[in-house]
Design a protein that fits this description.
about 160 residues, alpha/beta, Rossmann fold, globular, five-stranded parallel β-sheet, 8 helices
Length: about 160
């Protein structure tokens, strides 16, 4: 099993990594998110995503990106911590950060065979869906686990 640090990659490494994986005949799955407080809903989702291919690459929003999307009180956990926790999961093969509000640029670089998002996202709102579909890949929406969200978890903690 690879160490956590070996699973965290930078933008310069993604091109050569994806090229190597493709030459090896690997089916590449990509998903993304803030993953601010990892909970069972995330673990379930990532395990299901990993089953769709040979390699799961997870894009993680930078701290500034999370603040723009979720508000100035977020993220709860730093990018470094979020990436390390994700990399520690058995279902996750690689973790990479992005600073934009969507991972479109990253998706264009990776061109995954499968792009995965939660079932609450309509396909026409999934960043990069058209790029993946046009390149012959597929877009899969995984149903969410009811009552499992970071926002609801924060609300529960705040009410204690």
């Amino acid at each position: 099993m690879r160490r956590v640090e070996e699973k965290i990659i930078g933008i310069k490494a993604i091109g050569p990594l994806v090229s190597h994986l493709r030459k090896s005949g690997k089916r590449i799955v990509f998903t993304n998110g803030c993953f601010d407080i990892i909970h069972y809903g995330h673990v379930f989702y990532l395990e299901k995503a990993r089953l769709l291919g040979d390699v799961l690459i997870v894009g993680v929003n930078s701290d500034a990106s999370v603040r723009r999307l979720k508000g100035k009180s977020r993220p709860i956990n730093s990018l470094r911590d979020r990436m390390r926790v994700l990399a520690a999961l058995e279902s996750v093969d690689y973790v990479i950060s992005f600073s934009q509000d969507t991972p479109l640029g990253l998706i264009k670089r990776i061109l995954p065979d499968v792009l995965v998002k939660g079932g609450d996202w309509p396909i026409d709102r999934i960043a990069g869906a058209n790029v993946v579909l046009e390149s012959g890949g597929q877009v899969v929406r995984i149903p969410l686990r009811k009552g499992r969200s970071t926002t609801s978890l924060i609300r529960r903690i705040m009410s204690l």
